[in-house]
Structures are given as C-alpha cells and as structure tokens.
Design goal:
397 residues, alpha/beta, Peroxisomal Thiolase, Chain A, domain 1, eleven-stranded mixed beta sheet, two-stranded parallel sheet, 13 helices, globular
C-alpha cells in the first residue's frame, strides 16, 4: 500500500563542506571535498577525516550550558543554519509545541566529551572524574534529544535512534509513523555525529580506515574516512504547504547477518529498497537517481552493487557522496537525504568523488563527474552494522 507523501518544508545541513546548504551545494559544484589528512595529528591515526571547523570556539552558554560538549555544539551549529529554527517555530505556532515530534539519529552522542574528561583525570592523577562530565546531559544517547528539545522548544514525542549508519534514515520512518497515526502533526528529523577517538580506533581495529581519501566503487578503494555532521529536516502533512520536496516512501529491514559485514548477496538491502518503492507506489523505472550508501569498503560496495542491480535491472544515475563529507555514521542518513533534496531542487547529481577508475568487478556504473539534471524521484540507501537497513524515497509532493 502506498503512503501519503509528507512535505519536507525546511531542511539544513552542516558538515565538512561547510555550514548550511549553500556551502554544500557550492562545494558539490566546485568539486571540492571536505576531507583532510588530519587524522594523524588529531587522533594519532594515519587517516583522512571530515571535520566541521570552529566547534572548539562555540561553547554553549546560558540555559544550554549544561549540555556543552562537541556533539551538542555541532547540533546547535547545524540547527541555526538556513532559517531552520524559525521554520520550527512557525510549525509550533500552527500546531502547538506538543504536536511537533522530534526524531534523531546518532552513534556517538557525547563520547568525545567523556574521552576528554577521562584524559583530564589521567593527567591530574586523581580518581575523581572531571566535574565537567555532566553525564546525564552529555553522554547518553537520549542527551541529544533532551538538548534539541530544549534548544528548539519542542514538547512533542521524542526519540533518539542508534542503529549505526542507518540511524537518521530510520528517524524519517519513525517520524512518518507518528504523523500517520495522529500522534503529532509535524516532526523534526535530524542526525548528529561528531568525531571521537573511540569511533576512529574502533574502525581502525576492524581494518576499515583508509590512509587516503576514500574511493567508493573505485578499483583502488582502501576503506572509509570518518566525518562529522549535523542535519535536520521538518516534515509536515503535504496539503497546505508550498514545499517542493516530500518523503514518498521508506523501507526498513534487519537481516542480522553479521555484526559488521553485510550479506554478500545484499538480501537485506534488496528488501529495504523493494519496500521503499512499494510504499511510494513506484516502480524501479520511476527512480531517476540513487544516493548509494557507498562506504568504499570492498564488502559493502560489492553487497550494495549486487542489491541495486537486482532491484533495478536498468539502474538510474547513482553515486556515493562519502568522498565529499566522509562517512558521518549516525548522521549519514539525513545528510545524504539533504543531498537528495538539493538534487531535486537545484538540479545537480553529485559525482562519486574519489572514484577515478571504477572497479570492473562491480556492475553499477556510478557517476564519476557531477551532472546537471532534473530528477523527479530519488532514492537514498543507508545500511548499518548488524544488518540494520533503511531506504528512503523522495520527490515532489
């Protein structure tokens, strides 16, 4: 059964390409990546990362000071771009603060802040943790939801999802169900993840970090680069809005094949994409562009390649944007959804940056140059550890 579209009435993105949508679209047009070889200097690892500049100089103050940590600074920086806060205030004026939901994805929460506090304890040779830890306000996953509720003034249902790389994609599905069942009339969907030592060393232990800029679908790909991002979108019922972009459908699956490796045949990904198309009332031929999960690891690219080619016998234009921003983990789903919004509204299909020579073993022909086009409907894949998969379909309301 097809779903009724939900309008995307406002959105914003902040990542290694810059603050706000203008910075991202300008970088996509210039062909300029946000990845930098700062991993060794900042984290002691020989890898490239996608950092957001200036967070060190943006402490949270006033009523929000108790939440101060890198992840919440990033969230605040993100939500204050593109007039997003004003759009949320207008929605609360229309529906009431209790009728606007908040659904977010993260995988790091305030881990970076906890790491800092433990380093301080070690340096000072004391058994006491730094009083600045403020554990309930910085460390738990729900701390991001508490912070965003206070920062935006939202008083509706709130949930923070942590399903690895599919977290903020699944936030769209969660928001849809809350609106469709009448629990709320509008919802803020978001994703925030910040760079931290624990995540980088974890991926390094798995042998997945690349020592050079990542190359999704490339024959010479060596692994991933980690980035950080904060992205938000406002979903409302389509009638009565002048939005030009809408959530048309979604699909979720959980194949539970392995803790960190996808099924080689991509069966879980196939299920998510098929369900997303069915819920949108579309056929594979109706999709004009696919934003791939495209992590640039051999196992992930092969599995997604097999899955996409199974669902789409004649695949549309497709690309991975992780060569621009790095893999933003829990924020990847919505960050790449915003790239899809920009494709729909700005008429641009981004290249798979870093892929100079596509791997001949892979069947899907990805874009290696940014193109001008006017897609009508686009699909975005987000596949997380543990087989947690989510596919979103966007287009005109």
């Amino acid at each position: 059964m097809s779903l009724k579209p939900l309008a995307i009435s406002a959105y914003t993105v902040t990542n290694a390409l810059g603050r706000g949508t203008v910075a991202t679209i300008d970088a996509l047009r210039r062909g300029e990546s946000g990845l930098r070889p700062e991993g060794l200097r900042r984290f002691g690892l020989d890898t490239w990362v996608g950092p957001v500049d200036g967070l060190e100089d943006l402490p949270l103050v006033g009523p929000l000071a108790r939440y101060d940590c890198r992840n919440h600074r990033l969230a605040w920086l993100g939500m204050t771009q593109d007039g997003f806060q004003d759009a949320v205030q207008r929605a609360m004026s229309r529906y009431g603060a209790t009728r606007v939901g908040l659904f977010l994805g993260t995988s790091t929460s305030g881990i970076a802040h906890a790491e800092h506090c433990y380093r301080q304890r070690a340096a000072e040779r004391t058994r006491e943790l730094d009083a600045d830890l403020r554990f309930p306000y910085t460390q738990p996953m729900h701390a991001l939801g508490d912070f965003c509720r206070d920062a935006l003034g939202i008083d509706g249902p709130t949930a923070v999802l942590s399903t690895a790389c599919s977290s903020s994609a699944k936030a769209f599905a969660t928001a849809y169900r809350h609106i469709a069942t009448g629990i709320c009339d509008a919802a803020v969907v978001g994703g925030v993840d910040s760079l931290c030592v624990s995540t980088l060393y974890g991926f390094n232990a798995l042998g997945l970090l690349a020592k050079a800029p990542c190359a999704p679908w490339g024959v010479d790909r060596k692994g991933i680069n980690i980035g950080e991002a904060a992205s938000f979108a406002l979903l409302e019922r389509a009638p009565g809005t002048d939005a030009r972009v809408a959530l048309l459908g979604y699909g979720e699956s959980s194949d539970g094949y392995h803790m960190s490796s996808p099924r080689a045949d991509g069966r879980g990904a196939v299920s998510a994409m098929t369900e997303a198309l069915e819920s949108a009332g579309l056929q594979p031929g109706d999709i004009d562009y696919i934003n791939l999960h495209g992590t640039a690891t051999s196992a992930n690219d092969k599995a997604e390649d097999a899955a996409v080619c199974r669902v789409f016998p004649d695949p549309p234009a497709a690309s991975s944007t992780k060569g621009w921003t790095g893999h933003t983990l829990g924020a990847a789903g919505i960050t790449e959804a915003v790239v899809c919004f920009l494709a729909l509204e700005q008429g641009i299909l981004p290249a798979t940056l870093g892929c100079r020579s596509p791997d001949p073993v892979l069947s899907l022909q990805v874009l290696t140059e940014t193109q001008s086009a006017r897609p009508r409907r686009v699909l975005s894949n987000s596949f997380g550890f543990g087989g947690s998969n989510c596919t979103l379909v966007f287009g005109s309301p």
